[in-house]
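Quick one: co-fold with uridine-diphosphate-N-acetylglucosamine.
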Amino acid sequence: MDKLLIRGGRSLQGQVDISGAKNAALPELCAALLTADPVELHNVPRLQDVSTMLKLIRNMGVAVQQGDDGCVRIDASGLSTPEAPYELVKTMRASVLALGPLLARFGEATVSLPGGCAIGSRPVDQHIKGLQAMGAEIVVEHGYIIARLPQGRTRLQGARITTDMVTVTGTENLLMAATLAEGETVLENAAQEPEVTDLVEMLIAMGAQIEGQGTSRIRIQGVDRLHGGTHTVVADRIEAGTFLCAVAATGGEALLRHARADHLDAVIEKLRDAGVQVEAAQGGLRVRSPGGAQLRAQGFRTTEYPGFPTDMQAQFMALNTVAQGTATVTETIFENRYMHVNELLRLGARIQVDGRVAVTEGAARLSGATVMATDLRASASLVIAGLVAEGETVVDRIYHLDRGYDCMEAKLRGLGADIERIR
Ligand code: UD1
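Sure, here it is.
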């Protein structure tokens, strides 16, 4: 299993390219299943979850060509097996995003239940409930969601759906299903994340009729068929936010090319309050920081977009541990998203967790140690801490990091970090 060896203490300087967003690319690869025409996606990040998704759709009989330039061509005309098996779904929950498109185009789909994951139970009941409201007959048997249209029906029916909570992949699944349904679907309490909006832009380019993306009410007029199209995946705001925190913690100055300030308002505001300079620059975001010890720790609550993203909680907490002062973080989206805390403690951080609340006592002098990555964003927070810590930090089990970051250590090395992969 690969590890990262980090020798901390260097400030980060220079320029880095922010890749396409993992959480946009994954639903967009599934959106290509909605049509028999070829679809071309650009700026697809090179990471493990994308490889898993490509494996999943190839397994259905879809032709996929992946270039070195981030371009993926998908031809789902020969899709013969509308199924997502457990072996693939268990490694990536986002596989459930195949459910809506398969059901809408083929009238049937069999998708493994994703089950729990390290950060909580993460059910998909809202996906199922929404598709049932659109007329699907769904049973859960032997660990699989088996969905089909009632006898004699060839299309889902438009419906008015209010999800119990804001769910990102739930919104995406229902949205994709609704594009081919008969009549109008209205999604209330819809997720407003930029990745949802990016998916809608792709669907519109394929001939879908959708309005209201980026708000909590999305309206979809179903059409008979979608055609092929070309789309460029939006920049990854979480990768950009991770680099912002890394530069902030280590001190230094960097240009994050392609990063979008308008997708990171909540994080940028906290960084500015901490004492970091962040400005929109031509073609990206410029960040300048005097280093963690000169910053003021900031409290925050994770909420749905446009609030502070849960996917940035761990990275910002690593920054808080080295900044001055006490800060209170409340995680409201997932019930168990503090696994990075025990590992940060091993590096010398001072953090107390009580349920969903974590209090950091700042100004810790972190010292290198061996730590273990437990999920994707937790891994990123350990890398940030390792970049600041004195001496050597080894981050073990970085397959979590590889799931969601495109060449992270190479990008950090490009900014001057002393970091290497040990195979
Ligand atoms: C997506 C992101 C993930 C991010 C999360 C929250 C992708 C591929 N993943 O995950 O990186 O951390 O949004 O921003 O885009 N819930 C239910 N029932 C459901 C659906 C959700 O109870 O049917 C609950 C979840 O357990 C969680 C909350 O709703 O507590 C939000 O989850 P959701 O937005 O669905 O997260 P994902 O879409 O899985």
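If it helps, Residues 23, 26, 93-94, 120, 122-127, 165, 167-170, 310-311, 333-334 surround uridine-diphosphate-N-acetylglucosamine (CB under 6 Å).
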